[in-house]
Amino acid sequence: AQTVTQSQPEMSVQEAETVTLSCTYDTSESNYYLFWYKQPPSRQMILVIRQEAYKQQNATENRFSVNFQKAAKSFSLKISDSQLGDTAMYFCAFMKLHYTGANSKLTFGKGITLSVRP
Amino acid sequence: DTGVSQDPRHKITKRGQNVTFRCDPISEHNRLYWYRQTLGQGPEFLTYFQNEAQLEKSRLLSDRFSAERPKGSFSTLEIQRTEQGDSAMYLCASSLYLWREGWDEQYFGPGTRLTVT
Predict the structure, then answer these.
(1) Cβ B44–A91 below 8 Å, yes or no?
(2) Mean pLDDT of all residues in chain A?
């Protein structure tokens, strides 16, 4: 079974600055995806960024980038030029790759509450 | 709006009552998932459907819970004889799973917040 650990419950950052959210995971699988999801207050969860485990290059999406360390089983999210709209709960999640049609459920960490200060 | 919708958004019920939630997925998505999120925790998988077939249920899903997805479209999640421990946010997600891809991007609905008094 997979586990995802987010040990920082809360973080705060000044608008326009950079913040890094940490995540570690444990799995015996070799083929998987890692994700960061954003859940704004009272709004639905949206996908921020994903990383394929077989790719060494770190994923980037505009102001969001990841630092994927496969051997260390670490997957952190960096948010550059933080904006007020980035205030949300952020979840790290794991998905095993299945080419057999099996369950592709997500396993989530506990989440981290990020507050961006004006 | 063509996203995932859930109804109701909030439900308050008394212990022992039955409740039913509905999820309407994105059109043509073949997979539908139910997750439960309690305060201070990340969502936990409950069950999922591939079209109309329910293929897996978590151990979290006691026999008081039942889910359906008739005709592979919308889904319902029913909880019988609710308990205070059932209080949580119930999230639905849908996806288009393609075997050649091996994974699917899940789109989440806004959730139904259940409070059992």
Answers:
(1) no
(2) 94
> How do residues A106-115 score in pLDDT, each as one tens digit?
999 999 999 9
The pLDDT, as a whole number, for residue A19 is 98
User: Which residue in chain A has the smallest CA separation from B90?
Assistant: A44
Contact B34, B77 (CB under 8 A): yes
Q: Which residues contact A36 (CB under 8 A, 6 or more apart)?
A: A21, A23, A47, A48, A49, A50, A64, A66, A77, A90, A91, A92, A93
Q: Is the peptide bond before A40 cis (omega within 30 degrees of 0)?
A: no
Residue in A98, A101, A111 nearest the CB of B42: A111
Choosing among A29, A105, A107, A110, which should be mutated to test the B contact, i.e. which has the most B CBs within 10 A?
Answer: A105
Residue position matching structure tokens 């995806």: A33
Chain A with chain B: Cβ pairs closer than 8 A: 62
**Closest Cβ opposite residue B103 in set A37, A104, A111:** A104
State residue B1's pLDDT score.
54
Q: Could B108 and A105 be called an inter-chain contact, meaning their C-beta atoms sit closer than 8 Å?
A: no
